[in-house]
Amino acid sequence: MGHPTVVVTGPVGNKFVFTSGDDTLRSNLPVPNLYIAGEQSIFEVHGARHKLVRAAIAGFLRPESLQKCVPLMSSLVKRYLIKEMEGKDSVYAVILLKKIAFKVSMAVLFSLTDDEETDKLFDEFLLVLKGGWVLPIYLPFTPYYRALAARRRIYDCFSMILDERRRRLEDGRVSPNDDIIATMLSMKDEEGRALPRREIIDNLITMVFASHDTGMSLNASFVRRLAMDDVTLESIYEEHTKILSDTKDGTLTWSDIQKMKYTWSVAQELMRIDPPALGNFRKAIRDIDFNGYTIPKGWNVHWVTYTHMDKTAFPEPEKFDPTRFEGASKMFPPYMYMPFGGGQRICPGSHYAA
What we know:
Keywords: Heme, Iron, Metal-binding, Monooxygenase, Oxidoreductase. Helix content is 54%, strand content 7%. It has helices at 10-19, 31-37, 47-60, 63-67, 70-85, 93-110, 115-129, 143-170, 180-186, 197-228, 230-245, 254-258, 261-273, 350-353; strands at 5-8, 25-27, 279-284, 288-290, 293-295, 300-304. The protein has a four-stranded mixed beta sheet with strand order 1-6-3-2. It has a two-stranded antiparallel sheet with strand order 4-5.
């Protein structure tokens, strides 16, 4: 806020941002996002440190690791749906799905399954989210003040969890690959040192947001589309009914997920029309010549997903058409379809989100 900013658009602009190294452009979150995610989160660190942390997170979230988590995720979703719907004629779907996504992330990524603990954390994260895109005015009655207060409580909670998890690692009750907390506690940097507590917690908080909040945008779009589009609803219902009939006791596996071809096409089209993130910021580290213009050192560079509505790649871009992503037709020109960003800072959890 209040910084000179250049907005780049089109595939040329996207390529410029995503292929520029840290010696040219660096991540530069808006102030509220920065203090909420943390100054040592993967969003802000660069160079060797970014590669180190990114490799750990991406390694834990690679498809081979996620395959074994699908049955657990399936059973958790069913259990939480039954619990939250019990005795109710109606619910607020988006809030319900957000809470379920949060609970699943807590269990799968952090091995946190105590309902009282995760319910408390969920409420705190809701407060933090309300301060993410507001003026950073630090006064007791502002959303920003309340968000940072909630973040401090989350930090303290995760700090106690780290201490407990470290003890379990030391006595062999958990292994470094059991969850992302154990993974980060076991990491060593290029000089053989363990990661500092603050850096670990900043990245855990960032992962909580990335694993459930941005994905919630897609869930909300899905609910809205199914409510207003009987054709899409019927097609998805038929696909899932067929898959369900072939499962054992209704619990999904990785192979079942791979059969959801039409569902995935719908998800991709929804992310094209309404991307989970509309873009992000970088900061020019030096004077840059781009496309006939000079971007001065210190200026912000903002890339946007405007290419998702480019008629040359997506005819009738305002039209909802999942067939765009079926078969060979899903091959688009480079740097046109970017729901998870791109380059060295592409979302490391894209497989988990998908």
